[in-house]
Predict the structure.
Amino acid sequence: MPKELTYLEAIREALVEEMRRDPKVFILGEDVGPYGGAFGVTQGIVEEFGEERCFDTPISESAIVGVSIGAALRGYRPVAEMQFADFISCAFDQIVNQAATLRYRYGGRASVPIVIRAPSGGNVSGGLYHSQNPEAWFVHRAGLKVVAPSTPYDAKGLLKAAIRDDNPVIYLEHKYLYRRAKGSVPEGDDIVPIGTAAVRREGNDLTLITYGAMVVPSLEAADRLAREGVETDVIDLRSLMPFDKAAIFASVDKTSRALIVHEDVKTLGIGAELSATIMEERFQALDAPVMRLAYPDTHCPFASVLEQANLPNPDSIADALRNLAAY
Amino acid sequence: MASIKRTKFKLSGEQLLDMFYWLKLIRAFDERLSILVRQGKVRSGVYTGIGQEAIIVGTCFDLRREDYICPLHRDLGSFLMKGVEARQMMAQMFGKSTGLSKGRDSALHSGVPELGIFGNTSMLGANLPVAAGLALTFKMEKTDNVVVAYFGEGASNTGDFHEGLNFAGVNKLPVVFVCENNQYAYSVPVEKSLAIDDVADRAAGYGFHGVAINGNDVLAVYQSAQGALRRARAGEGPTLIECKTYRWHGHSEHDKAFYRTKEELAMWKSRDPIPTFTTYLQQLNMLASEKLAEIETRVSSVIDEAVAFAENSPDPDPLEATTDLYA
């Protein structure tokens, strides 16, 4: 029976179901134990599984990831929580030098099946250190996978896929969506395979590629364009590394025009890679340069008026789509 | 020459000779590597532990296959004692396809899970949180296996040292932390990087016992390790053993080590762990000249065979430069 769940509840459901399925899955992080996590994601988990399988750590992000790596080498599947994605930089070395390289330098004899859950993103007045989108750092490092769900269904299905994946996976859960995104989520195993995008809306005129909290404003902008007679394919990437080239190319082959929208900053963000890939491999299909609408190259400010000035929104996305259509 | 006091170990004559063999083999391996670097046969990445062998032999001697070690870059001998063949280690140093990492890295950045060997990165101290993670799984499984994690006095200044030892202390994990205090972090002498005399004192900050010992006395190291291993196996938590020692060569084989005096080096060479132990065994009438010759021959043949194997091994297939990134 499908249930109506919030994005946050869907994450919790994936954790609980995976812990019931596989005794090797455990959770560690700051305040994830009896308190239930800073956002409440792990509420109730200690009650069912005990503190042996869902435990608090000191404020030691590097150790949280390092301990996870050690446990993974012994066959466990730790799910580490960074309290905020912003804090993941404190564990950067363990992720990029230890986890990402391990299989390679071990000659393929081992792998590191860890999931690092990282609440990311802004639009919550979080300021500089509770709003970041660190995906590009990790997409840039071979050996890691990076996912960023936008719906409760995907939040659950992608987390299950991440926990069962034999590689280190950075799971970016957008804080803005925690209680705002609601949707039908089936009980049990609906796995969303890592590396597959979802087409959220179909149209023959334009392609809009996005992910995370930018999906909803992108759909709203696409609806506005539809009222103006321009139909847009909206592709929700869901998985940033690897990303779904086939879905992107299928759409671009049809529309010949692509806009990429993301909340991470523009320079060397995911959009840069997608744009370069489309131009390299689908140049002849294009009738316009691939365009990007992203966060300006700045930090996330606290004051609402400042933050809103930086975030793409339905107005700015619709304008970008109009520019693309008119090119 | 320093001498070894008669101690009350339950070590058989055979075991004592075994210790002697390991000391000789590890020394010979490093010495041959040093020559191979000068011959241009092994390129870069060679960090010998000449002068520090007693630490590895004393701490690894009683380990089981199921126990885990987390060596640092000078601890090639620990790989051998844990069961990796000398020929495979030599092939690793040559960057050959038959090495542990299939030529992807020389040095000790590779590991062997089934032998309980974790290969660290070049980021010193980064193995310590991983050691805690490995130990956590032993505690979860209620086994009496242990982790022995090595680090230098230089790495004791990193954040990962603090995070890893604190995590191990808080959770009373079965880890023996072995500090190889060889007086220099590359060129920086210990008095410029530590405001205290003994790294062992740092253990108090993590709620467990620390002891500073003569790291050039294999039996003193063995005795301390026995106590620490016993406590760890009994669930009494970690111990920090600081072994005072000295590296005879530079930081790497390319470092001429002009930052230290000849007198200082000569003083430490007079404390060479190997002749000290040789004399001890001879005084016990356990190392007749034929036995000594037999061991030396055995060591030479192992090293010669390892070099021949490495030299005759094929280079890696260039395609392997981009494989084993993902499981």
Q: What stands out?
A: The mean pLDDT of chain B is 95. The CA atoms of residues 119 and 221 of chain B lie 23 Å apart. The interface with chain A takes residues 99-102, 104-105, 109-113, 118-119, 121-123, 126, 128-137, 140, 159-160, 162-164, 166-167, 170, 323-327 of chain B (CB under 8 Å). The first strand of chain B starts at residue 68 and ends at 70.
